[in-house]
């Protein structure tokens, strides 16, 4: 059957069961891999088209007024569908609409075989950045003439299908065979296509290029780099001249080259610190080009000294960006070959051995796990790293991935045939041979606090986004324990008769559960699960019963409660401690039984290495739970640590997270890191307050005697590119006018949106205020005119929300927490940045409160030593979202008059670049903004 019918519908909404109707159909016919015909029509839905749909599709009520009804064209559509494959981008959506309409008109539902291009794209292009039709088309170079019109979307879906079919017909035999085994759990009727490919391969004598196979898995052959690095024989000055100066490699290689004096200055500062064996603090304002500046020096130093050098970033995404974008550019800029390697924590890498084992296990898979397995099967034929961050798994796929990550291997045997195929081992070997290792703060801290076992040895490092370093260090010295994780890990073990891991172990053993001393397991196990439930439920109620002023709300809306042993309600808290103690004893009983099982496993040949590895992993998890429970509930609180509880306000009574962190890390870092390393450079766009580094020096425990500092000024012309506006007539929140303040903020958003045609990013410090503003804006704004996108309300990740914001011509994006930094929206996509409140941490945030108390005990002012510097650095991060190039222009509108009225307000203004500041009534600011644009 070589004929395919591709269908796309435009509808009045998302649900046919709620009386949403089809307003347009587009159909494209593919025969023998060629588009041969098409059909499209509008339908009169006999109801109003919602404004959002008209905005999205361009189809208005007047367009469908005289259009035929669905019934008039139904037979024509049935005739076109015939008994051919039906293809759509999200088949369940289109098919449910068609079949509901057919059923409503007394016609037979379509029962054709189907292919879903969303599902197929996820499997066959696992590394695609998005599976929305428009973004997939862009990724695959398919021209999309009229997005969100049925016929255009159907044409694009047809072209996408032909690319998917081509990709499927390039898969190796082993991959196809495994996909056939998984096919029955997929939405798409793929069997015939897969079988066709399998048969073609069975009679083929040609091997698939660059693919090797082992134990039924086909994966990409990885060539080891043979290129050797050379020692440098030129001076640092000549080296920089050859890159930065006119007619240097940078000018030759980069389009729109602009000489940035600050970039060279930063390279020289880092080299000075390396030469003098000092640490360095360098603030490089936006536009400096700091990544290239520090990499250029790092590469020179690594080659000159013949010693590897570590670069650490805040996120794994920035790590990947450095390796995929900056390093290839530097290989063109620098004439001498060098080696750079990326290294992440072990859990980022797929274990091929574990995947092969799980792929053939008899466990019944749900749809998410089937899709995950299919995606990974295709991905391993393409990946060179095995780094799971390269692909976007379905949400429940990450639970399956936990079973097949490299950190599940309790012991890696170098004599195992899998050892040479381990992605993690390859990444480690590459790092051992590299001049530059690119890692992240999390792995760097894991390495520091585990006697430097995880990274190859180094003397010098550069820490980017260093304003986050203290928080990451604190987290690594602390603990986290949550209900979901405990129950998930217990459920992985299971009872002796529920089909989970322990049940499968018992069935392997001919002697039965009693001989393995497991007769008491089920009773203790079920009691343990009950006690976990009971502990977290009681803890939830305990926190809810506390006075409101003892609780705070996090920036993502969770309730937070700080544990202070001497102030807890004695009877209720004592009961919780007894419950934690009882749970610890039950977990010990489980460990005792599993340890006995461990001894039995060594005596019986029916158990394989995977059974033993799984057992060791389960034992480790149970021991970690005991350690964390005892540390949190049973050990006396230390003056140097803070403990707190977080919970979802409207969730299950046991959706609770327990945290503990040190209040200060300066002494720990000084002793374990800065005193042991020759030269550490810390850099960021935001390290100073009023040009002073004293805050960050104190927080990180740096010795000012062994320190080089510099602030690199931005090359941007902020005076002419930015206007900072502050209204002097907003209600003052201090006097209980929160509703009035939110109303004024929303009015200002709408007024500015008219002037800037949307293109606004609004930054909140409180999730509650964001939600209330969103609700009010939806009431008072014209939803036909603007698309309103809000973090935590509109679905999708931060990256997805940013992409959606850039897709629409007139959009307003409301963000909190993570939107204050790391979001680049260059050019005309962003013309106005609104900062609703100065970003002070809530004074009752557990970690902040503990740090503030620590400072007060030293007879210092916690506001000026901690709260203000943190807020200024955060403000600078937010301010930096607006201007990302020399061509950008925009307004920063700060609703919080404290920036002008208080004596500390000048700390904010004097910490950002010099820009014109207007402090006037709102209507005057709007007139000024209108004129300026």
Automatic annotation (TrEMBL):
It comes from the Bacteria. Its cofactor is [4Fe-4S] cluster. ATP binds at residues 284-291. Transmembrane segments: none annotated. GO terms for molecular function: DNA helicase activity; hydrolase activity. Its EC number is 3.1.-.-. A motif (DEAH box) lies at residues 464-467. InterPro entries: ATP-dep_Helicase_C, DEAD/DEAH_box_helicase_dom, DinG, DinG/Rad3-like, DnaQ, Helic_SF1/SF2_ATP-bd_DinG/Rad3, Helicase_ATP-bd, P-loop_NTPase. Residues 249-517, 271-496 form the Helicase ATP-binding domain. It catalyses: ATP + H2O = ADP + phosphate + H(+). SUPFAM superfamilies: P-loop containing nucleoside triphosphate hydrolases, Ribonuclease H-like. Gene3D superfamilies: P-loop containing nucleotide triphosphate hydrolases, Ribonuclease H-like superfamily/Ribonuclease H. PROSITE patterns: HELICASE_ATP_BIND_1 (PS51192), HELICASE_ATP_BIND_2 (PS51193). It holds the Pfam family RNase_T. Belongs to the helicase family. DinG subfamily. Type 2 sub-subfamily. HAMAP family: DinG_exonucl. 3'-5' exonuclease. This is 3'-5' exonuclease DinG. It comes from Virgibacillus alimentarius.
């Amino acid at each position: 059957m070589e004929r395919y019918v591709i269908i796309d519908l435009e509808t009045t909404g998302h649900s046919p069961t709620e009386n949403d109707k089809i307003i347009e159909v587009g159909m494209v016919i593919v025969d023998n891999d060629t588009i041969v015909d098409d059909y499209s029509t509008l339908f009169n839905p006999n109801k109003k088209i919602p404004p959002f749909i008209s905005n999205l599709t361009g189809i208005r009520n007047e367009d469908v007024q005289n259009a035929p009804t669905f019934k008039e064209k139904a037979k024509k559509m049935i005739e076109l569908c015939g008994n051919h494959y039906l293809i759509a981008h999200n088949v369940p959506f289109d098919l449910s609409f068609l079949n509901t309409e057919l059923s409503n008109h007394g016609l037979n539902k379509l029962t054709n075989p189907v292919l879903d291009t969303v599902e197929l794209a996820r499997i066959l292009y696992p590394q695609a950045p998005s599976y929305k039709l428009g973004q997939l088309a862009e990724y695959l170079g398919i021209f999309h003439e009229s997005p969100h019109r049925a016929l255009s979307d159907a044409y694009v879906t047809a072209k996408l299908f032909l690319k998917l079919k081509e990709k499927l017909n390039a898969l190796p035999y082993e991959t196809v065979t495994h996909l056939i085994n998984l096919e029955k759990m997929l939405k798409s009727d793929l069997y015939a296509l897969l079988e066709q490919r399998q048969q073609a391969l069975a009679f083929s004598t040609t091997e698939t290029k660059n693919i090797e196979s082992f134990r039924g898995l086909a994966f990409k052959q990885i060539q080891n780099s043979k290129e050797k690095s050379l020692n440098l024989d030129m001076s640092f000055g000549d080296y920089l001249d050859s890159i930065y100066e006119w007619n240097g490699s940078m000018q030759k290689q980069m389009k729109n080259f602009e000489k940035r004096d600050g970039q060279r200055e930063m390279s020289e500062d880092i080299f000075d610190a390396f030469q003098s064996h000092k640490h360095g603090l360098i603030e490089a304002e936006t536009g400096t080009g700091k990544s290239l500046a520090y990499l250029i020096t790092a590469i020179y130093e690594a080659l000159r000294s013949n010693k590897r050098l570590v670069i650490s970033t805040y996120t794994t995404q920035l790590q990947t960006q450095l390796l995929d974008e900056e390093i290839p550019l530097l290989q063109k800029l620098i004439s001498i070959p060098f080696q750079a390697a990326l290294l992440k924590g072990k859990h980022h890498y797929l274990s091929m051995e574990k995947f092969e084992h799980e792929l053939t296990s008899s466990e019944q898979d749900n749809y998410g796990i089937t899709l995950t397995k299919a995606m990974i099967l295709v991905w391993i034929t393409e990946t060179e790293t095995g780094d799971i961050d390269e692909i976007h798994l379905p949400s429940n796929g990450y639970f399956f991935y936990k079973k097949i990550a490299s950190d599940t291997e309790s012991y890696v045997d170098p004599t195992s045939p899998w050892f040479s195929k381990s992605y993690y081992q390859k990444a480690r070997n590459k790092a051992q041979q590299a001049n530059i290792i690119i890692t992240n703060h999390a792995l760097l801290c894991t390495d520091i606090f585990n006697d430097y076992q995880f990274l190859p040895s180094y003397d010098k490092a550069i820490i980017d986004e260093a304003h986050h370093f203290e928080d990451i260090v604190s987290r690594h010295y602390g603990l986290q324990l949550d209900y979901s994780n405990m129950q998930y890990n217990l459920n992985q073990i299971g009872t002796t008769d529920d089909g989970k891991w322990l049940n499968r172990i018992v069935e392997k053993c001919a002697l039965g559960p009693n001989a393995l001393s497991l007769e008491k397991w089920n009773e203790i196990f079920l009691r343990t699960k009950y006690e976990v439930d009971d502990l977290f439920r009681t803890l939830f109620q305990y926190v809810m019963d506390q006075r409101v002023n003892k609780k705070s709300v996090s920036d993502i809306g969770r309730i937070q409660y700080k544990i202070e042993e001497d102030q807890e309600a004695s009877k209720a808290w004592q009961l919780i401690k007894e419950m934690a103690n009882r749970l610890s004893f039950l977990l010990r009983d489980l460990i005792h039984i599993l340890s006995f099982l461990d001894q039995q496993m060594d005596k019986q040949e029916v158990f394989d290495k995977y059974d033993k590895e799984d057992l060791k992993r389960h034992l480790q998890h149970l021991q970690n739970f005991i350690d964390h429970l005892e540390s949190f509930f049973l050990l006396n609180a230390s003056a140097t640590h803070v403990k707190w509880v977080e919970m979802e306000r409207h969730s299950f009574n046991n959706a609770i997270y327990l945290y503990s962190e040190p209040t200060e890390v300066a002494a720990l870092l000084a002793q374990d890191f800065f005193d042991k390393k020759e030269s550490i450079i810390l850099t960021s766009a935001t390290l100073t307050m009023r040009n002073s580094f004293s805050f960050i020096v104190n927080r990180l425990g740096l010795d000012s005697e062994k320190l080089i500092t510099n602030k690199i000024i931005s090359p941007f012309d902020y005076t002419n590119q930015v206007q900072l506006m502050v209204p002097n007539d907003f209600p003052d929140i201090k006097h209980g006018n929160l509703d009035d303040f939110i109303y004024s903020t929303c009015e200002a958003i709408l007024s500015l949106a008219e002037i800037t045609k949307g293109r606004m990013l609004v930054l909140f410090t409180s999730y509650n205020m964001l939600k209330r503003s969103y609700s009010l804006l939806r009431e008072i704004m014209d939803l036909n005119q603007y698309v309103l996108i809000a973090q935590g309300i509109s679905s999708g990740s931060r990256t997805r929300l940013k992409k959606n914001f850039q897709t629409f011509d007139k959009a307003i994006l409301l963000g909190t927490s993570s939107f204050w930094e790391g979001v680049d929206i260059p050019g005309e996509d962003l013309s106005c940045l609104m900062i609703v409140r100065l970003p002070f941490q809530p004074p009752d945030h557990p970690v902040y409160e503990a740090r503030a108390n620590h400072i007060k005990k030293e007879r210092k002012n916690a506001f000026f030593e901690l709260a203000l510097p943190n807020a200024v650095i955060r403000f600078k991060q937010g301010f930096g979202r607006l201007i990302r190039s020399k061509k950008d222009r925009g307004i920063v509108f700060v609703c919080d008059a404290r920036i002008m009225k208080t004596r500390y307000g000048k700390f904010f203004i004097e910490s950002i670049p010099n820009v014109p500041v207007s402090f006037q009534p709102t209507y005057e600011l709007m007139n000024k903004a209108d004129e300026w644009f």
